[in-house]
From TrEMBL:
Native source organism of the sequence: Acetobacter conturbans
CDD domains: TrwB_TraG_TraD_VirD4
Entries under InterPro entries matching the protein: ATPase_Atu1862_pred, HerA-like, HerA_central, P-loop_NTPase
Protein name listed in UniProt: DUF87 domain-containing protein
Coiled-coil parts of chain: none
Gene3D superfamilies in UniProt: P-loop containing nucleotide triphosphate hydrolases (3.40.50.300)
Ranges for domain Helicase HerA central: 5-75
Length: 488
């Protein structure tokens, strides 16, 4: 089986070929203004590789659902499924090696980011036995990895940016080859764009985008003006999978059509009736009171709905459990949570993955399917990461510390409570390495930045003694740790 595909033709003569095996190892970045032919390029790439490699497409506008008619992709409408179901779908599509289009059309930006992050997280967290090659195409990547905060919530932005960063930075070893397309490089997070080694740069007009495109292609700044003159469907290509030197490529034809084709210019014929009577006619009284809702067609059956139906049947068949003392039940659930954290390197797994593992263990232990919702789980997870024992977590002092932590971002609560627990029991100030593990990273530099941020928020105070050993005091509680070595 060949691993070479034809993108189109080189301007000046000859076919433009792409080495698929090299693409899977080195990733691809596509840039071009609206109307430059980005979606056409992605469709050509997907059609050429549909029979060669498994595909996952993050589709914010529903442009690529037509691939399912020809190439048997499974179309998942993200509006009809929860984040937990989409994460499970991301895992299963890799296990069963099915190509998938995640259709995010109709969702607002916040929900698009959350559900795309859940799906990508599921793909990323599958066991090593299922690390098969997957071409992961993300259209309009600046929506999911923005360079600056926008109107979406901080939690949605962090989860989406983290998922796309994982795809581009750590996905190669897991078989995930990221292909990201963006209208503007300046709006795309730099750490995401920097991980691509192959580039296809289309028409763009803004100076900042032309300058960044020229830098990525190794061109001189004076050559950047050439991006304004590119025709629709023409791109400058560079990278180990396409060419070692910049070359101009005209993308070839495609066999499927987008649902959202551009406007077609037709002769304009104004209405013959009075326009005011047509547009400003009063509404009938029933229509003003209540507009009928359009009937919603039932979703097509797929793996997700089958599993949900099966799970509901199992829930109905489960006998009612005997009443349990609420305090004892809470302690048992906390014990299950600590098991999840201590097994299989749980401290470095994302909360969504830990939550799924936690729910499975709770069902095995007889606590039912709804032992704890995601919001309560995140609060309990932060407390469990601190290392506090079950008895101490019931005291008023610790509950006050948890109340203070609730005012912080969720990813910072575990570190704050970890320091609070050390101060409460009068142990040494945790090292940078220990703080990094609680946060879920191996970077001690990030741990130091987290401590600096907590100090800026007036949550803690750090001070060094004469020997350079660090103490941490919790503002408002009057607790302070013993001296500890910061660099271990």
């Amino acid at each position: 089986m060949t691993s070479t595909i034809e993108l189109g033709e080189i301007v000046g003569g000859g076919p433009a070929m792409m080495n698929l095996a090299e693409l899977l190892a080195t990733r691809l970045l596509v840039q071009g203004n609206s109307g430059s032919g980005k979606s056409h390029l992605l469709r050509r790439l997907l059609e050429q590789t549909a029979t060669l490699v498994q595909q996952a497409i993050i589709d914010p506008e529903g442009d690529f659902v037509s691939l399912a008619e020809v190439y048997s992709h499974l179309v998942i409408d993200a509006a009809e499924h929860t984040e937990a179901a989409l994460q499970a779908a991301g895992e299963r599509m890799r296990i069963h090696r099915a190509s998938v289009v995640l259709n995010l059309e109709g969702l607002d930006a916040d929900l698009q980011m959350r559900r795309a992050a859940a799906f990508l997280g599921g793909m990323f967290d599958v066991p090593r036995a299922h690390w098969y090659p997957v071409l992961v195409v993300v259209d309009e990547a600046q929506l999911f990895a923005p360079a600056a905060a926008g109107e979406v919530s901080d939690e949605a932005r962090r989860s989406s940016l983290g998922a796309l960063t994982n795809l581009m930075c750590r996905g190669r070893k897991r078989g995930l080859a990221g292909v990201i397309a963006t209208q503007r490089l300046a709006k795309l997070a730099k750490n995401v764009a920097a991980e691509a080694s192959n580039f296809l740069m289309g028409r763009t007009f803004l100076d900042i985008d032309m300058a960044r495109a020229a830098d990525l292609l190794g061109m001189e700044r004076r050559q950047a003006e050439a991006f304004r003159d590119l025709q629709r469907g023409t791109f400058v290509a560079l990278g180990p999978a396409v060419s070692r030197r910049p070359m101009t490529v005209r993308i070839g034809p495609v066999h499927t059509a987008s649902r959202s084709a551009g406007p077609v210019l037709e002769p304009f014929a104004p209405p013959s009736e009075l326009v005011a009577d047509l547009i400003l006619a009063p509404l009938p009284e029933p229509e003003m009171m209540m507009r009928p809702k359009r009937p919603v067609a039932p979703p097509a059956p797929d793996l997700i709905t089958q599993l949900a139906t099966h799970g509901a049947a199992l829930a109905e068949a489960e006998p009612e459990a005997d009443p349990v003392d609420p305090v004892e039940r809470r302690r048992q659930i906390q014990a299950v949570l600590r098991e999840v954290l201590t097994e299989d390197d749980g401290g470095f797994r994302p909360p969504a993955s830990l939550y799924q593992d936690f729910l499975v263990r709770c069902r095995i232990a007889g606590f039912g399917r709804e032992a704890m919702d995601m919001r309560a789980f995140r609060r309990a997870l932060a407390s469990a990461r601190s290392g506090i024992d079950v008895e101490a977590s019931e005291t008023p002092e610790w509950q006050e510390a948890e109340a203070m932590a609730s005012a912080l971002p969720e990813d910072m609560q575990g570190v704050f409570l970890y320091l609070a627990r050390a101060a409460l029991v009068q142990s040494a100030c945790p090292s940078d390495g220990a703080i990094a593990r609680v946060y879920g990273t191996h970077s001690t530099g990030r741990a130091r930045r987290i401590l600096a941020w907590l100090e800026e928020q007036n949550a803690i105070v750090l001070r060094l003694d004469g020997a350079g050993r660090r103490r941490a005091a919790i503002i408002g509680l009057g607790w302070e740790t013993l001296p500890g070595e910061p660099g271990l």
